[in-house]
Each structure stands twice: as C-alpha cells, then as structure tokens.
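Quick start: what a row looks like.
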Amino acid sequence: MQYQITSDNIEISESMKVLAEEKFSKIEERLTEKEQKEALVRVVLNRASADDEYRVKIELAYSGKKYFATERDYLLESAIIKAVGGVERMRKKDDDAHEGDWKKQREIKRDVVGEAEEAKVEIEAEEDEFEKVINAALEE
C-alpha cells in the first residue's frame, strides 16, 4: 500500500506520518493482498487558521474504486480517526451492497435450479404416461 501524506500549511513530522499510517492500518488489514498492492492512500493534514482546528482529508483508491472522507477536530489524532472511520463506513457499505447482490443472485439461481428440477420431474412423469399409452396401444 502506498501512502502520500502531505499538507498545505503545516510541516509534516515523522510522528504525524506514523500516526496516519497506524490509524489507517485497520482498513489495510481488511483488504486482499492484491488490493493492498495496488492501493493508494492520500492523506492531507491541514490546520484551519481561524478555528485552530485540524482538517484531515483521506482518499483511498484501488481497483477503480475511490473512497473519500474529510473531518475536522481540535486534535489531529481525533480528526484522523474520524476520517478513517468515514472511509471505512463507505468501504463497508460498498462491500455489503456487493454481498447483498451476491446473495440475491444466489437465491435467483436456486429458484431457477429448483424450477428446472420440478420441470424435469414433470417431463419424466409425462414420458412415463406416454410410454404406458404407447405400450397399451401396441398390445391391442
């Protein structure tokens, strides 16, 4: 996973980078190995001059998907945690939607298979009945 940690108005210390990567690690753990290799995480840490707040923007991009969150807080760590939580919620919602589609497709497939089996049983019964009629006609 590649990280780009930048700022427009504060100098980024090594501890800030470590903090951002550490807080983002819970999302990283949930990605597949392939997703981790191609994922790009952009973190922008800024200080809002008027309010003495930190503003954190996080973007996660992989496999053609993008997740984005922006948060503000008086503590840098809290702002990062909130932004990471926002990205995680978006990712989870996307995963749940995909799983829901998968479950729906599975149910449709089960219904189709069940209907096909019922049709097969009906056809076999009709074939047996037809065979009886033919045999009875031939015996006469």
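That is the whole record. The helical segments are 14-30, 33-38, 76-139. The first strand starts at residue 2 and ends at 6.
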